[in-house]
Amino acid sequence: MTTQSRQDEAPSHDEAPQQSGPDLSSPLAASYYTDFSWMKRSRQWGTRAPRGPGGVTLDGINIGVYGDLPDNWDEPSRMPRGAYPVSGAVPLGPAFISQKSRQWADHAPHLYEESISRRWSTATDVPWETARDLPHDVELAMCQVATELSHIGSIEAEVVSSWLELLSYGFHEVKLCLSRQVFESARQFEGWRKRALLNVDQLGLESPGWANRMLLESRVGWTETCLALHVLRGSYLLTLLRYLAAYGPSEADRALAGGMVADKARHLAYGMEHSRYALGSEPDFRDSWNRALVGAEAAVNRDEDDHVLQEALAIVFGGGVRNMDQGMQLVRRMRRDWTRAYLARMNWIGLDRDPWLTPRMRENFEEPGTNGTADAAGEAAG
Amino acid sequence: MTTTASEPTASDPTTNGAASNGAQAEGPFDELMSFAQERGYKLDWLRKAEIWGSGEESDLSRGGLLLQDLAGSDPAEVPDKSDNLTGRPRGTQPRKVAPRVGNYRVRTKADIWLRNAAELYEEAVQRQWSSATDIPWHTLTELPDDIEAAECKLATFLTEIEFVAGDVPGRWISEITPEYFEPRMFLISQVVDEARHLDVFRKRALANGGGLLERNPRAGSDVFAGTIDSARDFTEMSAKLHISGEGSVLTIFRMGERMAYNDAEKMIYRLAASDEARHVAFGVMHLQYLGQAMPERREEIHSYLDEAERGLIAGTNQNPAANANPSNAALSVLLGGGKDKIEEGQQLALAMRQRQVKEYVQRVTVAGFGERFEEGRAAGELLRAYANA
Question: Rounded to whole angstroms, how far apart are CA atoms A316 and A324?
Fold first, then answer.
């Protein structure tokens, strides 16, 4: 055999050689040991992935036949993309999501590698000792905020992991990228749990759960779930984490939130890129998505209107109960900020949400101090 | 500090109901509550905190703040059964209005628990590595065609089976109540470990001239019952995946030095073995816990191990160290040093096979099911024959 590149045409299953059964009694009699034709069954001998400054990357190995991404991945088994096929492979059973448009994002391999290169640990990368001896009201409020964020992280891990298996093996980059998302959602769970229990022996109230339910019960498709999870609720969470990274009561709180901002931004990046790709491939999605998002936004608003998290955030942002009015102004600004960012992202994806916004969603645009949902606080702030 | 925060109101915050303004100002904290409530805030969610920054603080000098050191981490405090249907993590205060979304299949502690899942999770986090930058790819040099083809054949096989090792634990994550979050967290760490293995073996196949070779001809051929993929019981899945399947792969990885031709390949096997050892440890420790907590299930577990062992012996396409499959031929070429030395390589592969079996027997024994090797269960006898061959 020479090392000359010999790009074989992808053989069909019918053409692929039949394998004989194993012969345990006489291993050497098996053809594999005397007939080395299996060594020639490479579709692209001579493949040498480039080694760049970032090492050998997932994107870098997408060369030649290994980078050919079909619009549909019809292989019903776990055959790696680009491997030499074999006849008689038994289908696995689950109905895989086979269309590229229903899972792909061009930068999924980059996001996967970035997630690994930016790996961090809540155990050792957060200066926990700086979060001691906070005022009691601030500590209890932070415990409540942390409890809800921890709960949300746990649910997100459930949501994404429940879809992982259904994604096609032909688009393994997406599976790998999403596996990191599950891991990072788990980090959100455990990091905030650590924060909640750092100084107090009990957790706060669970999240109201309306957005969690919307995401867990979404069975429309991965793309729609991704739109609601990453772009809608992700926009809300990203802004919340950014505010905590800025207004958190201790260096530990700010560092923890800051680390998660980077994680969440990657999730959002996948969600935006995938949604845009899906919509570009299937423009008919536009109306159905716009319609479905009304209900999804209502679920997020319902959680958002829960006074428990609002008040806890107001105490945290304001620096104590006595400064809740100022803190509540920041809560309202946060609402405005996430909603604006969300609509801008939807526009980038190709969805104009403006005609579809409910009056409740529009409330988020009201200037701080004019929102009627926390009257006393609003008046005081005004 | 030992101050205790007073319960703010007489109302029940779990209902999200209207605020009660009935709190009596008895101390600084109560004064704050009154101040806020007079301004229209409810604050009915503030709860009494019995321990407040007391001596329960974790020792942050020992590896930082670890999951296993938190309040409520004592296994004795973990409930034997869970009726938590809202998906709230253990210890979180429930709300009466929360919707029931957690139709979890695994709601019994014994079905999922082990004593050191949190430790294994934290170790996994600390030992994350990058296939892009932690492998000395520059040490890959052109290899003889037969060696390169054999490396790529094995890498193709490993890429494919890592799909299984990632997807199957992933499937269980959303099936386990977060009441038992420690094992769930471990399984999540396993999913990213397996993703990394898939990615590193694919990279190896495409980095040095060979490319992916033919896929495993019989992968997934046992689709009806009794397999890792089809298991509907977590312990059955774990015994077959973690102890039998990953245990066999761990042995191969640990002998990676014998079949590596450069530092890049040695590092791949070394790092992958470190991950795989955690996965095997999870399976052993879970089986040990279940065997002790639910002795009434021991015979059932033995029957799963019977199937796993039959797979170890006869399911040759799933194990490159077993005779008579193309992956074994590739392994033998690598161990022998070329296709012209394949018989020599087969002897080394046989030694690897014996080590697989011995380690399997040891793990099952540590898990508390060693009697199967003394009681003459057929597969056990067969394994012993292999181990002593």
Answer: 8
SS3 A55: strand
A123: nearest CB among B46, B65, B343: B65
Is the per-residue pLDDT at B66 higher than 70?
A: yes
Give backbone dihedrals phi and psi of B176, rounded to 5 degrees, phi first: -105, 125
Residues of A in contact with B265 (CB under 8 A): none
pLDDT digits 0-9 by tens, A211-269: 999 999 987 899 999 999 999 999 999 999 999 999 999 999 999 999 999 999 999 99
Mind telling me how many Å the CA of B296 is from chain A's nearest CA?
A: 31
- Complex ipTM over 0.85: yes
Tokens of A323: 């400064």
Asked if A54 lies within 8 A of B87 by C-beta distance, the reply is no
First to last CA, chain B: 66
Q: How confident is the model at residue B74 (pLDDT cuts 50, 70, 90)?
A: confident
3-state secondary structure of B7: coil
Answer for the pair B199, A55: CB distance below 8 angstroms, yes or no.
no
Specify the amino acid at residue B8: P
Please count the CA atoms within 13 angstroms of the CA of B332 that sit on its side-chain side.
27
The pTM of this model reads 0.91
Name the 3-class secondary structure at B134.
coil
B178 contacts chain A (CB < 8 A) = yes
